[in-house]
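From the shared-data thread, chain only:
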Amino acid sequence: PGRAPPFDMATRRKFVIKSFSAMNRYDGSQIQETWVNLRTAIESILGGLDCGKMSFEQLFRFAYNLVLHKHGRMLYDGVQKLIRAHLESTVAPAVAGAPAEHVLAMLRDQWTQHVSKTKMISDLLTHLDRSFVTPHSMLRVRDMSLVEFRNSVLNHADVSERVSTQLLETVAASRNGEETDRSLIRGTLTMLVQLGVGSMSVYESVFEERFLAESESFLKTESADFLAANTCSDYLRKAEARIVEERTRVWEYLTDLTGQRLRAVVERCLIAEHTNTLVDMRSGAIAMMDEGKLEELATMYRLFSMVRATVTFDMPVRVAGRETGATVTRSCTPLTVLRERFQRHIESRGVTLVSDTEEAKNPVKFVETLLDMRSKFAVIVETCFFGDKEFLRAMKEAFEFFVNMDGRCAQFLCLFLDAEFRQGFKTKAPEEIDETLSAVVTAFRFIKDKDVFESHYKLLLQRRLLSNRSVSDDAERTMIIKLKAECGPQFTSKLEGMFADLTSSRKQMLEFRKDTGSSRSVAVDATILTTVHWPSLSEEACRLPASVQPVADTFRDWYLAKHTGRRLEWATSQGTAEVSMLCAARRYELVVSTFQMCLLELFNAAETLTFERIRTDTGISVPELKRHLISLCTPAARVLIKGKKGKTITDDEEFTVNLKFKSAKIRNRIKLVTLRSALGAGAAESGGVPEQVVMARKNQMDAAIVRIMKARKTLMHAELVNETIRILCHRFTPKPADVKARVEHLIDRDYIARSADDRRRYDYVA
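Structure, as tokens:
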């Protein structure tokens, strides 16, 4: 129990597969009857009625049976003939006979009805589509009906051309500001797309090709006429409004593809073809920059940034940073043209500034103009060009171009800061001071020869600190912090060392007074300077008066006793003194240089002295002595009276104390006249670079070359030059010829040697 009986092969049953029995086929009368019923229903539908007496289910079954009994071809062809006959007899004559102004409306109405009728017929013949049309790769009933409408109605001799013309006239009327039925246009264009049955050929041939051609003609004429009669600002507003209108047109009734093609036509006709005119015309981009028309300039940028088409542009040719006068024609976008014009305009303004001899006479005014330029164009880039990085780069390159034309810009920046630290910052709030310093640092970034700036700034800072003429130590330190952030600690190490020396000197003077007492007729306030931090002083020290020398000796002895192994020298050319002058029973306090104090002390013994006598007794060099004497004889000072009129001083020239000296102030500062060579000595011989900077550059190039060769051991000439320039470019940009000269110098000194195999290769000599 529980087990199935064994399978007996003798009792198995045979299965026989037989073919289907023959299907009952329609005879001729049944086929004809079925078709008549379907034809009657379809004709009723085409006539605008319903399916007639029979229900949808009955008609669907008739169509199903015809297809099932292999009469699909007869059914498909019959329906096609019915649709074609209806279109040719009823629809086409109605559309062709409509007046021109009503042809679009008539066509739309007939199309709407035809689509509705086609859907009903297509629903009846669903099985025909699925079982006959698709396997035979024929058009589905719906698509076939659309094709018939296209062939019979749209391609009618009196319809196609009129439809195309009426569409274009309607669009033209809309562009001219007339009211139009946009829904009618949208419906007609949708019909043209659908009549392509998966293709845009009908839409393109009937409408798009002519539409784009007429749009181009219209826009070219409109833009040329408007530009000829209006300013650039007016044209930009008109162009922007036209672009918005055409964009709305695309959204309302054009296809996306037509929108893209129309956009290209609009951009080319309105913007690209007029780019050079819009930029260069009297009221164009250059005038907008000069007149501060920021909104109009921003509009130009927005319009130019839309355009993808290229235009021809004449680019100036430069060799070694100088324009040759030649131009090269290149293809670029309108935005590139605007950027190039923007850069050239800044360069032109900058070159005019640098070449202006009147501006060059006043460094402060020169730098103020430079900073105003930079601020103005920075606002333009941020506001009008929306902070475009390419325009920022163009502005930077433009300023670098003219700022580095010679060494004056670096010198003038230092002189501007000197004037601000001495007087300008007195009336400014801390925020204004910081803003000014930041603007100067921004201009400093444009300078490639930063060592020239460092040389001038260090010398002027020395003068301010030693004469105690800086109005704000905090501002001075802020400037050093900004320079340190910009160039690194090595750039400002000596500047920071100057302030460290002053701080140390104040502490040591307190100790000196505490140790030696302060009951002296002559008081000394010495500043101990570390030689490496302060620029070298070319003037020789003078002989101090007998009343001052003991105090100086006392301080020297005290200092050397506390600091063994050091050498102390008096830099009298940088010192100041306060002396008392008694005239007409009134005492005045004069703030003078140490040299002036020494020579005025001589007039305690005699009212009149000759130039030669003063020179002999003081030991001051002739140029400096003349400078300090003339400063005491100027109309603003009149402490001494010069024997002869004129600026020249002879050896026998006599100087007399002005016993009639008068001043409304008790304390009077005697200003020194400025020597022409006081700043940047040797600059004329070095192409605008001070001589001490030239010597420092040679040493820096030597050090860089030796470091490179020590690390690489062997190197080709071109690679050595490029590597040297790369290392030094943060301070200055050496010329390849200068690097080559230093290489030859180092070869002579046996630091490096030429390779025996290749003279273009250098080997490091350990």
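The longest strand covers residues 322-332.
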